């Protein structure tokens, strides 16, 4: 909320009265967008709930095929990236442009590590023939463990949930690179850092969705 | 110079700004040329681009309707094949719902009017506003690609398992809908942020025009419901693409889940279409009866109530789908509940007319048509919400007639009312009043001729979407077709006199209806930034008993509204306002 508009007002668009109004409006808009994102994932979570209610033992069997260690590591990586984003916002509030740049780079790196681990996990699934839906074709060994007739649906839901989440991570990396470029051009200061704040909110959303996905998919006993 | 109370904390210097009757600079004289239009971030131009797109799609959807009605002139084949017929009614439904009704009032008229009614220079996020238009265009391209490639024959509801099996281009259309959804979401997000943060000094929530309350309720539904459609369309696409099995019974999925998902969006979507229409009705009815609205808060809150209850009634589309009887009973009860806020609105509008000085101009004619047709649509909706009646009437022409009375008799008539009401503001030109009334009459008669017979044949058992029918229904179908042609003539007449008004219409003047609405205190067509001052609001939006000059106040200094923070606390009564324009 430290946007005071007396000195620099070049960033205030013509239709806003002052910097504060522009900042508050952007933030409100982002919160509305976050509500909408939650409902978007809500549809997938709803499908998850319905199928888990119908086939509880399917989810217990399916979860055994997911690697808790990699999943847990990814959770830590993503929470870590949320901390660095928050630190980046704090840096720019204190007008530390260099701090923001460093934190953005760390966040981008952590997000890439997340995707890399996810890619390893996907690759492992594909090697075992654990494709979604109609392409589900497990190796005999896996088929022996995963005896449930609806096993393919579990992996459909798994790939849909984590896949849509991964798309959000990729978009987040893109946004973070955009922020880095703008920071390098010295466009942000303690007077104006609305885009950093907004992307930060987005990144926390991506993080929190994963925090729900991880136990729902990996930690079922 | 004078002062007027705006809030408890600050006193603003205000003076009267009388709008020029002959504006030199308007939004139409700035940013000229095709490229400037296509890249504009001005909400008024984006609204007009939406209006053109919506009109184009209405024309396409309308032609499809005429072809359908022509085919139904005779019980057997008249001139098109059954498969073509299936594709035509699918496209008619999909185009009219997704490309016409949903964006029509919020994105076209709302975009133009909302910032003006708030006294803002633009919507909160002008770039997103432009993006939403292009997202809409991309969604349309996907849909047209599908039409060119095998078409689509699932009906606009895309019910599984048929939609996962048919050989037509479902993926293109579902991806088109997925993309289109984001355009709707962006508009809704934009409006919510604009209404919360961009109101002119003095415009408290209690002084918002009811059109803004209606658009606010609509935006909430858009933001909460549309993402569910997006994920449903994504899942359906993946169902066809990867066979993920969530909706496919042969893979362990459940087609009913699709229906739940689909109607969780598509029922609230009905309110995305109709609630902004309510806003227009409130504006038009007060302007043409020159009277304070009856029950301001009742109308404002009932919009939000409809938005809220509208989320809880989707199951009434599924009474015969095999959902549990308890669920059906609850959905039936909740469906009746929607009738209450809707009834409150109708009552308040009629009460507003009571003892008003009614000026029967074309927009008000459309309001009366709306009250009549929408009431029929609403009451038949209550009948359909009754479980036992619905089992008999489900999937018959009775349903078709019901939702055309609501969607066309409600939304589209409200859109026409709004278009005729704001046309002078948008274009600065007047249309021919007599031709306007003749067209309204043609549409009213044509509409009833088209859809009243459908109630009768529906209750006698004529199923919807059928290509053939038995001889006893011939007279109803032929009457209906005749009505459709009459509607066509009515719409062509509207197109004719509106185009003519653009070319050779009389100059409108800033306020041809004598409204006190804020948007009418700008020039016609408006200034590029809507107002060349910052408007200050001291009265309610329908205080017709107060003098006009109190609605034309603006900040006296060029400084912004926040400049005058707490300098003094004096309160000067509105009588002290001097009028130096």
Mean pLDDT value of chain B: 91
Structural class of chain A: mainly alpha
Shape field of chain A: elongated
Number of strands of chain A: 0
What is the CA-atom radius of gyration of chain B, in angstroms? 24 Å
Tell me the fraction of residues in β-strands of chain B, as a range: under 5%
- The number of E-state strands of chain B comes to 3
Q: How far apart are the termini of chain A?
A: 45 Å
Count of alpha/pi helices of chain B: 15
Can you describe this structure?
The complex is a heterodimer of chains A (221) and B (581). Helix content of chain A is 76%, strand content 0%. The termini of chain A are far apart. Chain A has seven helices and no strands. In chain A, α3 packs antiparallel against α4. Chain B is built from 15 helices and three strands. Chain B has 581 residues and is mainly alpha-helical. At the A-B interface, α1 and α6 of A face α6 and α7 of B.
Name its key features.
heterodimer, A: 221 residues, mainly alpha, 76% helix, disordered N terminus, B: 581 residues, three-stranded antiparallel beta sheet, 15 helices, 61% helix, 2% strand, globular
At a glance:
Chain A has 221 residues and is mostly helical.
Topology:
The complex is a heterodimer of chains A (221) and B (581).
Chain A: H1 19-54, H2 56-64, H3 68-93, H4 97-127, H5 140-145, H6 151-184, H7 194-218
Helix pairs in contact in A: 1-2, 1-6, 1-7, 3-4, 3-7, 4-6, 6-7
Chain B: E1 2-5, E2 11-16, H1 34-38, H2 43-71, H3 82-118, H4 126-148, H5 162-165, H6 170-197, H7 210-242, H8 255-289, H9 296-309, H10 325-353, H11 362-385, H12 387-393, H13 397-427, H14 433-459, H15 474-504, E3 553-555
Antiparallel strand pairs in B: 1-2, 2-3
Helix pairs in contact in B: 2-3, 2-4, 2-15, 3-6, 3-7, 3-8, 3-13, 4-6, 6-7, 7-8, 7-9, 8-9, 8-10, 8-11, 8-13, 9-10, 10-11, 11-13, 11-14, 13-14, 14-15
